[in-house]
Design brief:
The protein is α/β, with parallel strands linked by helices and about 300 residues long. It has 3 domains: about 60 residues; about 190 residues, P-loop containing nucleotide triphosphate hydrolases (Rossmann fold), CATH 3.40.50; about 35 residues, no CATH class. About 45% of the residues lie in helices and about 20% in strands. The protein is built from 13 helices and 11 strands. The protein has a 5-stranded parallel beta sheet with strand order 2-5-8-1-9. A two-stranded antiparallel ribbon has the order 3-4. Strand 6 and strand 7 form a beta hairpin. One of its GO terms (biological process) is microtubule-based movement. This is Dynein heavy chain hydrolytic ATP-binding dynein motor region domain-containing protein. One of its GO terms (molecular function) is dynein intermediate chain binding. Pfam families: AAA_6 (PF12774).
Length: about 300
């Protein structure tokens, strides 16, 4: 039901943005919600199913205009290669933040999870005040990063002292309370950079569902505002419970999306012109393929 509600919410946003769009709205909403969570191999099956459900509809490429341009500009400022696959994932992350207040960036190390939300946040901040592709205007983004597995449950959520019975706030409860009472429209992203397991994530279920409330052991209930988003940067969901996974949007990043062109190319300026220099391209490709196969011949 949560997935259905997300599709309906995305369709509503598209209808408000494009009042004249009819049959294409359902197809766009289904794609925007589901494509980010699929692997490259799964996309072929998904596209086949969609083509069977909507045989007469031909979807046109979506122009994200200023958002895509701003993302590429931020990549240049941060000395990153603006690979098309990476830009697409940044846009998918933006679309997910519009319809979900809880989401997970899933993928192995080196797939670009950290840079994905950093680049998107910087791009949205640079576009502050301009009309957004989802309606309204872009707002600046403030990101709070913490590793939930590096501290205890008491340090994360807060705890009672066993001797004095005094309540001590945790890191997350302080951050959420400050964000909830804030009256500005600045986007607040709370990034949990660490493994997801049942030890600490179960207390987030009331935050991730429609209630959007953080319930503390002290009896205090903190209501999240509309500008607050809970993000989780994880390598896999092997030990995550279905209750948690069903409450979150998913953006899956694969190293194959980046390829190796962003590693074996270097841009230099010579006589006012950019020249691409190939650095040990053949050797790098051989190592890349060998590691992927898991063999060392």
């Amino acid at each position: 039901m949560r997935a259905v509600k997300t599709v309906i919410s995305a369709a509503g946003n598209l209808k408000r943005e494009n009042p004249d769009m009819n049959e294409l709205i359902c197809l766009r909403a289904i794609r925007d919600v589901n494509v980010p969570k699929f692997l490259q191999d799964d996309l072929k099956l998904f596209n086949g199913i969609v083509s069977d459900l909507f045989p007469k509809i031909r979807e046109e490429p979506i122009d994200y205009g200023t958002l895509e341009e701003s993302i590429r500009n931020v990549c240049a400022i941060k000395c990153l290669k603006d690979v098309d696959g990476f830009i697409t994932k940044c846009i998918q992350l933006y679309e997910t933040t519009v319809v979900r207040h809880g989401l997970m960036l899933v993928g192995p190390s080196g797939s670009g999870k950290t840079k994905c939300y950093e680049v998107l946040g910087a791009a949205m901040t640079a576009l502050k005040g301009q009309p957004s592709v989802s309606g309204g205007v872009y707002e600046s983004v403030q990101t709070y990063v913490l590793n939930p597995k590096s501290i205890t449950m008491g340090q994360l959520y807060g705890e009672f002292d066993q001797l004095t019975h005094e309540w001590t706030d945790g890191i997350l409860s302080c951050l959420i309370r400050d964000g909830a009472v804030s009256m500005d429209q600045e986007k607040k992203w709370y990034m949990f950079d660490g493994p997801v397991d049942a030890v600490w994530i179960e207390n987030m279920n009331t935050v991730l569902d429609d209630n959007k409330k953080l319930c503390l052991s002290s009896g205090e209930i903190i209501k999240l505002s509309d500008v607050m988003t809970m993000m989780f940067e994880v390598q896999d969901l092997a030990v995550a419970s279905p209750a948690t996974v069903s409450r979150c949007g998913m953006v899956y990043l694969e190293p194959s999306i980046l390829g190796i062109s962003c590693f074996d190319e270097e841009e230099e300026e010579e006589d006012g012109k950019e020249r691409k220099v190939r650095m040990f391209s053949g050797i790098l490709k051989l190592i890349y393929k060998t590691v992927l196969r898991g063999t060392f011949d």
